Amino acid sequence: MASAIKLWGGRFSGKTDPLMDRFNESINFDKRLYEADLLGSQAYAKALSQRNIITTEEKDILVNGLEDVLKEWREGTFIIKEGDEDIHTANERRLGELIGSVAGKLHTGRSRNDQVATDFRLWAREETKKLLVYLKELIGVAVERAKKEIDVIMPGYTHLQRAQPIRWSHWLLTYAWSWKEDAERLTQIIDRLNVLPLGSGALAGNPFNIDREFLAKELGFKGVIHNSLLGVSDRDFVAEILFWSSVTMIHISRFSEDLILYSTSEFGFVTLADAYSTGSSLMPQKKNPDSLELLRGKSGRVFGQLSGFLMTYKGLPSTYNKDLQEDKEPIFDAADTLSGSLQITSGVLSTLTIYPERMRQGLSPDMLATDLAEYLVRKGVPFRETHHIAGAAVRLAEERNTTISNLTLGDFKQLHQAFEEDINLIWDYEKSIENRCSLGGTSKQTVQEQIVKLTKWLGEN
Q1: Which residues are catalytic?
Q2: Count of CB atoms within 10 A of residue 92's CB?
Q3: Can you give the pLDDT at residue 278?
Q4: First-to-last CA distance in the chain?
Q5: pTM of the entire predicted model
Q6: E strand segments, 298-361
Q7: Where are the beta strands (DSSP E) in 243-335?
Q8: Which helix (H) or strand (E) covers residue 224, if one does?
Q9: Alpha-carbon torsion 140, 145, 147, 152, what sign?
Q10: Are strands 223-224 and 195-196 parallel, antiparallel or unpaired?
Q11: Mean pLDDT (the chain, rounded)
Q12: Rg of the chain, C-alpha, whole Å
């Protein structure tokens, strides 16, 4: 393949190693930028016309021709040919086939450096908006379940040991709040990436005084990147999206880990719908939570994309370097992974069956030991002393092979004279939960307040 047919081939007289051609090509993955590339080119044709670099007639020919190329991509009839090393080359080649030599005027003053930077931001902006929709849908599912199942109580855990009773809805909202923070982070990233590189040229700027603010408005950017060197080389938005993807997947992974445990026979709190489970090839009784295990596993995949890209990005000199071709596959993969993961997580959560009685059976009187200490606090005993007394009560119950609630008033009085007949009122899980009524606690009122706040946020966003 002669180098003369390449966009950059005028400098070269020899042929490129065919292996190098394949090594250099990116069309197999950056073709998904086709729409952003064509929309950016249409805007650039209009900007060229504004500066009388091309005539109004030529602008119309270019814009209409680019629309025809876009139609081919959307209908699946666009044919990638030998020599189409990237999406920009492919589109420009096809445009020339459709409208003739006027296609050669489109690239005036523009470099593939500012072109790809623009395409990538356009694509990232629209893709992240889709992810934001999926994320909010997931939050909505969690909030709706929390509202309906607010009276279900369960053990809360620290160190995977039963700790204190909580509401199932309180557990659900743990993740809803995490996902809300993920949504807010993504919104901020979308705002930051929404600035225009086009008009930066290869690195030094555009020589035809292109109206970059017009371009920004035409393409829906909030403004322009004010330094051409930065415009062609900045990929911070890629790192931010990959970091966001990693953190969001970590939240999904932790959610999955909880449900994997809760779905075991040892817990028996939940069962996944058949649609999100698989069986064993050997053991007929098995119902495996493969959806959750895949979600947990894919968090590592996404983090790997982040770490790989950062290693590529960290040592690059200014401005554009071919290393930046490695910026697309990681984010494409991460976006695809997040898209599927968010939707699967919504499906799992919306179809999950819970077993309130089994959850209640997981409660035990020793989980109210803290309430015992708090009982004495209300009697005026310092907490550090009451903590020690409650621990002694737990130890006494263990020595007698009974539960702490079966100890007598006399047993308690041996530990401290502040104990009275009302000690028996402590052994009430609902009361323990309702005592946690400070803002953010697990009482019914405070959980309802969380639901109201999250519902309001969803309505406003």
Answers
A1: 159, 280
A2: 23
A3: 77
A4: 53
A5: 0.92
A6: 353-354
A7: 270-271
A8: strand 223-224
A9: negative
A10: parallel
A11: 94
A12: 31
